[in-house]
UniProtKB/TrEMBL annotation, chains A, B:
Pfam families: Cu_amine_oxid, Cu_amine_oxidN2, Cu_amine_oxidN3. Belongs to the copper/topaquinone oxidase family. One of its GO terms (biological process) is amine metabolic process. Homodimer. InterPro entries: Cu_Am_ox_TPQ-bd, Cu_amine_oxidase, Cu_amine_oxidase_C, Cu_amine_oxidase_C_sf, Cu_amine_oxidase_N-reg, Cu_amine_oxidase_N2, Cu_amine_oxidase_N3. This is Amine oxidase. The active site is at D330, Y414. Its cofactor is Cu cation.
Length: 704, 704
């Protein structure tokens, strides 16, 4: 990554620096100090545009002894506090990364990055791109061709430009234009995705000026015609004022009269230790990954060193320019941390909720609070286990209580609800819900009832192209220790043999060891099930190695051709599982810099080293996803599509770990019997001033 | 099925019979009357053993006009009220089925069934088999060889005998023996599955006498040795008195201060119409299927004529006799209705619950109440949809409220929690949770830490053999009408061509029509998605046919060989999807009589007719399951393993049908913010006299 390395190790040191815990996210003052230190290595007249200022996590070889000392009560080793920075010389393409040692007050590394390493988007940049696109004279002229009604508001959705090898070395934005319902100009939340426009400016990123205007193909083929006069059509609003709301939904509330069962103990200003039902872990947060969980243990037994969403990729199916470049990396291009919603009590989360806040940088190196970006709460998930002895009639039953850590990210049109969940049977579940608004583009009205094979018409003149959502979860295990292995079980029918399996019913399960770093796939025909195992720790009952198995649904792998940029860049999207050896900087399976990337820097490349992954420090990457074939019901906002990945203990415990959950009894649960005589009067729900999130996400001016 | 048809049409008629609705389950008096009528065709000294007395549902060609008249307010056609009966001449193998016309008071059909048609088990029979097995002198002698401690209680788990073609024409039971912890003789709920015994009596079903005693192989091969003296080992209890219970779980309650949003309107004594959030349906129940849903509509638009679990099969992997015959059909062999738990307020169901009860027959034709066999309640299932406009900061969010109809069945050692769920986005979810206790068999202690490839040692001396759980959901659709078709979508990458797809990113979705009845499979590599479509009703926006798509997880198909009885009998277990034309009596995909069956009477055989299934009255059978490779954590009771099948609208509506759900707001939801200062005092939970279900399931004497 480094082109020119600057050495600052001879700089004078500053006063001894103290941090609460090496894994705490950077504090506001650490962010400020880091920005100041980076600025200090440049002449005073050089203005920097910061993309990322985040914790440079300590090397695992330092962190593991630290955690061991922490758990055993021994004295804690010193670990220097460092920050990672990526930044531009403002209004240039000179992109740098730096490592700042906050303990010593030195910039340890400062390197200009290569020509195809580009920074992620940032909020102010997005707003600047929108503004410049809409105010550009040539864009206005193009829009005039549409003969829009007087006073129509045109909106801009800036998109990461993408990669196709055509003069795309410089960083740019592809801006898709929409308009709001001309009959409702004052409704700022009118759904502009119902009115896509066939004009797309391209903006360069030194001065954010429009460099060209593209016209979009709106038929079934490559034909691009001049923008035609706009044809009136209805709006398609999602905000509640435009719906005839149901009146028969009765409130359902979750109450915890004795409070919640979890504890979140602050560490310093930004960190937390979470304890709940024998689970303990450290909760972190950063601009790119959002939530990160460290040092996850059950009943003190080590399970996961680090858990995080590694990236996601959303490639689109329309082969025509410029849509062929639509391939979003919502973490690498934007940041799941940066994009997180400010969760509102009673809107996003039900029950007894604790909110966590975070702080990230803005483009000026100024710490920016992310209030309520994570919510933590319990939920009831039905029955946990039950057995009734039919001879006595005695039922033993417990409920399944889950702990949820949830964050919601808005990436332009789409939302993703991301949650880590834990239960009392020692299981971890990672859940993704996809919701929000389809990315839309214009289609000629003649095709409304005809359609095209690469998308679905979801509103008159509105095409939602098929696309894949492919997620990559990074699991850095420490199942009873750091030397783990990956194996998989498969079930095979036994052949019919007269002496052993004469009736043809027998089958066996055999285990295969994964020896080298590689990409691997599920196989439903053999019930292939991957397990992360520690063979040096044996189950006391049956002698089998302790393990955690992976339950993940299959998905259609990336459909883009291996020759395509899409395929080369989304290095995780071709296999259900990747396994590699641990390397401190190998965190993001699509590579460190995804914006307009070329590939070669992600998990497929790391796996190609073919390191031995047997009984060593391994990392498992779990992919899952959806091939989203839009339907009418997905517009104007789609009902949540839910994906879950589970990690479950296998021969890790000596019996069901949830056996000691107290029995489910009425005095505890206080359910209420509804009688048949109970009437359900209808009720008009008045939704008035009280709105969810009417106060806005972050303090910002509305730029329109 | 009929061997000898008796004609009773000349019998005198009785007074005109009235029923509330043709789809109501039989009432208690209808059950009694039916039993009396069947008895009346036999000499008085002939005693009958009833296996099933259930509603003989009206032919669809009668029912459809009835429902149409009902919905349109027209006058209702007359439909005769009929009951289906299967019964034995008590203490013989003479098995019959009869159809009784309750409206006319006549037995319309009464036929002796063939030699390989056997009836399901019944509760009294199970108890008789247990008793006779344990009291048999030869069994007692065999048990003596084990040299069990004085006063040890031996238990018997009667198993449906199974099929293997070896002198298995007569109906029998294979009884597996266990003992309870000898150190705890007074604990009637001691987990006997921790102490399996190597002795297995076989019992015939005329007089329920032991006809032979088998000894079980307990090693890794076929070797069967004489029962060895019992070796002491620990117990493995699941009831709470033997656990050190967690003390830090705080109550979580679901409250609905204005009541629940659903209404269940009784029809007659046994039926209900359910209405909730635009869903309406008729709820039924019977001995075999448990819950059945009829006439399911959303916003008055027809969706499903009939929904039910069709059967489930659990074949085991141990090829050795007698285990090779273990292959349970929990609906056909026992009855999901008959086996249903009596659900207890606050134990099984959380929140505002309405219970439904049912009535079935016992073996004497006496109506037997099943109190609280179904519970109905709402639950919150997280966020339903959300979008935040980042420019204004306004979030629009609604929660996902679900309606649950749930039943829990205990089939000897295992439990299944079966639920139909509906949500506000027009989606139906069928959920199965597998829990309860693994079926266990003895293994020599030398193998505890060695194991065998066809099972897992879960306790010293206790082997839990691998097995598959394969479920079959019967969906009789009427998507906007009764003429439907089955299609599937697949997504295929476009080839790279310079003029159309030069960047190699394009892909298309194509639809394939299923023309003839057949078994079909999923294919994750093409994202194959099945849809039930009505091409005569088109979406007004995009012109596509209205449809419902099926989301079902893949499963490893039955591993038993096609030559095996297992495979021939479980006709549904070899494909993810079956589609057939509707036939009134084609309800159970494993065949009508599953006990010791031969195959040839289930869905594979019906599909082999290769009827055209295009734009006609079709039935779709959806299979799903688990290959259960036991782990230590599954013992002594397994944490729920959850499977879900979803049916979701595709181009059925004009937009997201949940758009009119009122926004999620704090005044409605009343969440509570937990502060960081909140302490979580630990609390000792006293579990005293108040127990779930201590009062027992049904009134019965405890036979020990």
């Amino acid at each position: 990554m480094a082109a020119q390395l600057q050495d600052f190790s001879s700089e004078p040191s500053v006063a001894k620096y103290h941090t609460a815990h090496p894994l705490c996210p950077l504090t506001a003052s650490e962010i400020s100090t880091t920005a100041d230190l980076v600025r200090s290595v440049w002449p005073a007249n050089i203005d920097l545009r910061f993309k990322v200022i985040t914790l440079d996590e300590p090397a695992k070889k330092s962190m593991v002894p630290y955690l061991e000392a922490e758990h055993s009560g021994a004295s804690l080793p010193e670990i220097p506090r460092k920050a990672f920075v990526s930044y531009y010389i403002r209004n240039t393409d000179r992109f740098h990364e730096a490592t700042v040692n906050l303990s010593s007050g030195k910039v340890e590394k400062n390197a200009r990055l290569g020509p195809n390493d580009h920074g992620n988007g940032d909020y102010d940049e997005i707003l600047q791109v929108e503004k410049n696109a809409l105010e550009d004279e040539k864009v206005k002229e193009a829009i005039k061709k549409l003969q829009l009604p007087e006073g129509t508001a045109v909106c801009a959705d800036p998109w990461i430009y993408g990669s196709d090898g055509n003069n795309d070395d410089e960083r740019m934005y592809q801006v898709f234009l929409y308009m709001r319902d001309p009959n409702n100009a004052n409704e700022l939340d009118s759904n502009h995705y119902a009115f896509p426009l066939p004009i797309s400016p391209v903006i360069e990123c030194n001065n954010y000026e429009v460099i060209r205007i593209e016209y979009l193909p709106t038929g079934a083929d490559n034909t691009v015609h001049e923008p035609r006069p706009w044809q009136s059509k209805p709006a398609n609003e999602y905000v509640h004022e435009y719906q005839t709301l149901r009146t028969d939904l009765k409130p359902l509330r979750v109450v915890q009269p004795e409070g919640a069962s979890f504890s979140l103990t602050p560490t310093g200003e930004t960190g937390h230790v979470l304890a709940w039902q024998k689970w303990t872990m450290r909760v972190g947060y950063n601009q790119r990954e959002g939530m990160v969980l460290y040092d996850v243990r059950y009943d003190g037994r080590p399970l996961f060193y680090r858990l995080s969403l590694s990236d996601m990729n959303i490639p689109y199916a329309d082969p025509r320019s410029p849509f062929h470049k639509k391939s979003a990396y919502d973490l690498g291009d934007a940041g799941a941390g940066a994009m997180a919603n400010n969760l509102q009590l009673g809107c996003d989360c039900l029950g007894h909720i604790q909110y966590l806040s975070a702080v990230i940088t803005d483009d000026k190196g100024v710490p920016t609070p992310l209030e309520n970006c994570v919510c933590v709460h319990e939920q009831d998930a039905g029955i946990g286990w039950k057995h009734t002895n039919y001879r006595t009639g005695r039922a033993a039953v417990v409920r399944n209580r889950e702990l949820v850590l949830q964050s919601i990210i808005t990436v332009s049109n789409y939302e993703y609800i991301l949650a880590f969940m834990f239960n009392q049977a020692g299981e971890l579940i990672y859940e993704v819900r996809a919701t929000g608004i389809l990315s839309t583009q214009p289609i000629d009205h003649e095709l409304d009832k005809v359609g095209v094979p690469f998308g679905t018409v979801v509103h008159p003149g509105v095409l939602a192209v098929h696309h894949q959502h492919i997620f990559s979860l990074r699991v850095d295990p420490m199942i009873e220790g750091h030397a783990n292995r990956l194996v998989y079980d498969e079930a095979h029918a036994l052949p019919i043999t007269p002496d052993w399996n004469p009736y043809g019913v027998g089958y066996e399960v055999s285990e295969t060891l994964v020896e080298t770093a590689s990409g691997l796939d599920l196989n439903a025909d053999t019930n292939r099930t991957f397990k992360i195992q520690n063979p040096s720790v044996r189950n006391p009952v049956n002698g089998k190695p302790v393990a955690y198995k992976i339950h993940v649904p299959p998905f259609q792998k990336m459909l883009s051709h291996p020759q395509s940029f899409n395929w080369k860049r989304a290095e995780f999207a071709d296999h259900n599982i990747y396994v590699t050896t641990h390397a401190d900087k190998e965190l993001y399976s699509g590579g460190w810099y995804t914006n307009q990337s070329r590939g070669g820097t992600g998990v497929r490349s790391w796996a190609a080293r073919q390191d031995s992954v047997v009984d060593t420090d391994i990392v498992v990457w779990i992919q899952f996803g959806i091939n989203h074939v839009p339907r009418i019901e997905d517009f104007p906002v789609m009902p949540c599509e839910i994906l879950k990945v589970s990690l479950k203990p296998v021969n890790f415990f000596e019996r069901n770990p949830a056996l000691d959950v107290p029995p489910s009894v009425q005095s505890f649960n206080q359910s209420v019997a509804v009688s048949e005589a109970h009437h359900q009067p209808s009720q008009e729900l008045v939704v008035g001033k009280e709105e969810c999130c009417a106060t806005g996400e972050r303090e910002r001016e509305s730029k329109l």
